[in-house]
Amino acid sequence: MEFAFITTSVLLVCFGLLGIFDSLYLHILKYRLYNHPESKTEHLTHTVRTILFLVILYYLYIRTDNISFYIGLGFVLLDILVLGMDAFLEHDSRRFMGGLPRWEYIIHLFVNGFHFAAIAVFLVIRVRVTGNQITVVNDFEGVGWYAAFLFIAKNFIPGSVVMALLHLLVAFPVGADMWDNFRGKLVKRTSYNR
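The chain above was modelled as a monomer; its predicted structure follows.
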């Protein structure tokens, strides 16, 4: 079980790092998908998935009771549906830039692969099948790497809240203008430092 917690932790960290690059840098800073009329719905799916990740993080990974586990699973299923919508929309959404670049498509595969692999490994940890009985495991005290895994999961909360709020902010014209002004100052300031 210790190796499963290590694996889930590594997958979660890989998802987080690649997810920040994709979501923050590519979608919001570089391409500003929220500003393109054809990308508004795609940005909405990204916003919903960002919020869903926060909810999944809390109910599936951090909480350790049966009800939270089932709530977390429900949000995972919802996340899969929204991911399907997002993938369907991307072709039309990225026409303004000549389509989704192949390398970004590959990044999306890895981001979602890490995300769902972390969930799958965690489900192996939480669900025990013995004979004809399925049990949800809720007590991991004393299991090696559980404390480290929980530390990682809890420390994803602040960043996930910031990402969700940023996605919500730029989804509205006033927020998008505020962000674009901030972004313009940030870009100008970094170009002066070269």
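The two ends are 49 Å apart (CA to CA).
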